[in-house]
Amino acid sequence: MDLGIAGRWALVCAASKGLGLGCARALVREGVNVVVAARGEDALDRAVLELQALPGARTVIGVVADITTEAGRDAALAACPQVDILVNNAGGPPAGDFRQFTREDWIAALDANMLAPIALIRATVDGMIERGFGRVVNITSSSVKAPIDILGLSNGARSGLTGFVAGLARKTVAHNVTLNNLLPGQFDTDRLRGNFAYLAQQQGIDAGQIAERKRTHIPAGRFGTADEFGAACAFLCSAHAGYITGQNLLIDGGAYPGTF
Question: Which residue in 2, 4, 42, 43 sits closest to 20, CA to CA?
Answer without folding.
Answer: 43
